[in-house]
Amino acid sequence: MKKAEMVVAGVMSGTSADGINVALVMIRAASPKNARSGYPFPLAGGGGLERPPHTFELIGHAEYSYPAKIRAAILAAMNADRARVADLARLNVLLGELYAGAVLTTQRRFRRNAELVGCHGQTLYHQGEPQYFLGHRIATTWQTGEAAIIAARTGVPVVSDFRPADMAAGGKGAPLVPFLDFLLFHDKQVGRIVQNIGGIANLTAIPACAAADDVNAFDTGPGNMVIDALAEQLFGKPFDRGGKIAASGNVLESVVQRALSQNFFSAKPPKTAGREEFGREFASSFLRSCGRSRKEDVIATATALTAVSIADAVQRFVIHRGRGSRRTSWEMIVSGGGTRNATLMRMLAEALAPINVPLGTSDDLGLPSEAKEAAAFAVLAYETWHRRPSNVPSATGAKRPAILGKISYP
Ligand SMILES: Nc1ncnc2c1ncn2[C@@H]1O[C@H](COP(=O)(O)OP(=O)(O)O)[C@@H](O)[C@H]1O
Ligand SMILES: [Mg+2]
Hints:
Bound molecules: adenosine-5'-diphosphate, magnesium ion
Number of helices: 15
Largest sheet: 7 strands, mixed
Distance between the termini: 14 Å
Order of helices and strands: EEEEHHEEEHEHHEEEHHHHHHHEHEHHE
Structural class: alpha/beta
Helix content: 25-40%
């Protein structure tokens, strides 16, 4: 049934493979009466996003870490040379059970039941650019976590597998969160750079007064992925909690500059990255380029690479882009697990200072930064349920708007 008001659970598990985020979101179609409550979504036209405003309210958010064994199995599954087909098939079902459990626990915790679930799934492989395969040019993406299981356990329909429809329309299948970024954060006075720092770091740039098709979005490079890999390898820790290790080290500037000279950073957007670009192999060669430096210096340098590559992308591809945009002022709104790394946030603020971009978090604007991506998949599911497109073609490179995802019924 199509309803104007719905509680939707968004479920996200990102490339860090750290765990599952669930956001319970109340979404209301606009009417003059409720247009003033919650977060208003006044929408500019264009780009397939033309429609009446909604209101959006976060009921609650919860985070569930993957048990160590499951995280190890997921990371192994992402390793194309070693993954076994039987294990991939089993992991799909196991993750479906875990996602369903996460939704049910979150519903009990906030005493609200979802009427619809939007589940991103765990990306095992993403290749946004077409490459030759058996004589055909193919782009592909693969998110796992069986939606039929989630639908069966929760008793409500589940939208999953959001990315392929955008790719079938000629897009890279990513990023998809710009849809929510635009709805929540576009502003008349100031340009906004909505920066997520997960395993990979990605930004959505929304010029002041923009229509949806002015939105520019792309991956800026590593987020926490390289820091995490090196923290594991050098300190036996899954990540650098609070950025404490990085704070006790010195940045090796020449290593940062050498890493930045890689093609990925100078390539023009739209562009996407994943473990294929910044996974184990990248971390190993980064470690080698640090020579015999202290372990703390290596972590500080990896942290600086994330901060400097973000500021560099902002300068190259946001501020110096497009008509007259040089004169607009910009601010950055950060979300994702990286906001909890104080050293990374300090380095990012320092890297942005010379280009006059102040830094805030999505928490400052009322949306907990670790809930944002999960909330985005609730909103995308709501759009799909109402048979409306929700890719942002200017962000993914798609030739047309596309209705995203597949629906599993309980
Ligand atoms: N307290 C913390 N201190 C430092 N880093 C943290 C902290 N909490 C989370 N992180 C970082 O955030 C990452 C997870 O961020 P998340 O936004 O969930 O990424 P993804 O979307 O890739 O799963 C962790 O792998 C870790 O690097
Ligand atoms: Mg995560």
